[in-house]
Amino acid sequence: MKKITLFSFLLLSNIIFSQTTYNLDWEIGMNGANASLTIDVGDTVIWTWTDSSPHSVRTLPESQETFDSGISSGVGTTFSFTFTEAGINDYQCGVHTTSMFGTITVVSATPTCDDPSNLMSMNLTDDSVDISWTENGTATEWEIEYDPAGFTQGNGTLLVDNDGVIL
Ligand SMILES: [Cu+2]
Fold first, then answer.
1. When you count CB atoms within 10 A of the terminal residue's CB, does the N or C end of the chain come out lower?
2. What is the Å distance from ligand 1's center to 95 Cα?
3. 0.70 cut: is pTM over it?
4. Distances (CA, A) of 45 to 39, 83, 161
């Protein structure tokens, strides 16, 4: 008899996400709204030096995440940082602290995904099984991964269910 192991239930919306790269010019006089962005967790900001003065990009002490590019010069110099935590990141140029500063606000783009519970299987035959679970969030569609016992999660056969009936 073939044993089917039902393994994994994932919200589709939880595995579909994208990352965005933002570009900011970095020169004397860039501050406030011109140097500020609201982005999602996982997004990257690239600062590009657009004048010939020496600059840096560094966070202030209360910033959620911490970075410091060090001081460098040259039009076209870049510094990039990928934000991985939701929060507020005030930053400045370490050389021109009063004329070059901004805020990168990072928000959480991924909805929370509650694990289903009460996973049960019944009526197992050679080629079918009834399964049930309790949805603990607001999902209306589930991805079901299965294969013979011992398969590697991620390599199994996928089914998508949105009405509780799969034939
Ligand atoms: Cu500067």
1. C
2. 5
3. no
4. 9, 8, 38
